[in-house]
Amino acid sequence: MKYFLVISLSILVCLAHCKFAIEEVDEFEEFEELPRTEPDLKLKDDSSPILEKAEAEVTVEDDDEFEHFNDEEEFEGFDTERLHVDDKDPKITIASVPVPFHTKWSNYIMETLLIVGIVAYFANFFYGRSKNAQLADIWFKTHKSLLEDNFSLVGDDGKIEIENSGLIKETESTYTLWCSGRTCCEGMLVELKFIKRQDLASMLNQFLRPVKDEVQIKVDMNKEDMDTFVFCVASKKTAARCSKEMADLSVFCPERKPGANYGLTDSFSVHSELAEVSSSILDAKTVNYINKYSDVIDCLHFSDRYSGLKLTDETAVPTKLPAVKKVLIFTFTIPTDKYTDPQEAISTIYPLMSFIFQCMERIKRLRISKEAKIKAEKNRLRVEEAFLKTTHAARAEAAAARKEEKKKLEKERILKEDPEKQRKWEEKEMKRQQRKKAPRMKQLKVKSM
């Protein structure tokens, strides 16, 4: 009976609690449906002084989240009278303003310049490319018969198959031609170096640093058909540049002499290792010919120690002397700035091709005296000794690296073959290291009396 009363009382308390919770929820639902007014806070027990004090302190503020729209200082031209007449919240409407489109061409200067620059670049590219191709074609057609008379192969270097032998286009401004099959030379390489007319930046640079179209012809002489000497005749500007850049000229004949000493015009300078060679090559006939074509002859470079440009990178020190060749190099300029007709400009340098063949025959017959030969050999020996001194450290380091690599390979081979051989090799290496570290003593033998 006792347990039954406890259980019954618990059930009644739970039911009462649930009923109070349901009534409380209904009161909140009615509160939300009522208009926005101050809530009527009333409790069942009005006599409680604490509740009366709390009721006096409780105030409900009706904050309007759109209150800033009613501020006259916030918006200009805001209609306050309409706001008081209309109880509804004000609505702000954003006008659809069209995107401004300027019809004046002055507003598009940068875009116009960009388009004009692109059109000008491509127009100059196609014009310059066609101009260089036209010059190369005219040069080949003008000299083709003369080249075929002196060489058995014209336009075939033996490396690639060419159906129509002729000029090889290296770049838009560079063309090459290889000729072979002639006595006293291994072959002749013709290189046409035109102005970079296809490049608009290069054409603009012409106003500051003008350059000319060039024809560079390099003849590889046979070893037995050219004696030992280095010689060069060039314009003053080219001679100064070659003496700094070319390895053979800077080493064997750094001294530059004026061309007037040999009967040439003042625009030429002469580099010569041997005075005997200068007097033999620059005879009266050759001097007159060079002076006649002084406006198109830029450089005549004859050398038995030609190795190209001088090495300027100090970090990469060579361990052996560079390969050298016996060559004759002729550089002529095409006077396209003087003649508007390309055919006429090419025709002015046509006689110089015959001059090249005459120089080849003269160099073949030229033989220096015994004294000059000894002097030239001393110069080459001196250069070789100086090179060996400068590269001694580099060669010693390379030799030590090769020795270390050889020892490493031998050790790996022994380790793979047999442990017994490995042990013997280690003992041998240890003894060698001890002998190397031990102080060296000189043994003296004393004869017994």
TrEMBL record:
Basic and acidic residues bias (residue ranges): 400-432
Q: Where is the composition biased (Basic residues)?
A: 433-449
Tell me which InterPro entries the record gives. Answer: CCDC47
Q: Name one GO biological process term.
A: endoplasmic reticulum calcium ion homeostasis
**What is this entry's stated membrane topology?**
Single-pass type I membrane protein
State the similarity comment: Belongs to the CCDC47 family.
This protein's species is Macrosiphum euphorbiae
Is Mitochondrion one of the keywords? no
Q: Name one GO cellular component term.
A: rough endoplasmic reticulum membrane
Q: What is this protein called?
A: PAT complex subunit CCDC47
Q: Where is this protein found?
A: Rough endoplasmic reticulum membrane
A Pfam family found in this protein is CCDC47
Q: Region Disordered: which residues?
A: 398-449
Alphabetized GO MF terms: calcium ion binding
- Kindly indicate where the leader peptide sits in this chain: 1-16
Key words of the record: Membrane, Signal, Transmembrane, Transmembrane helix
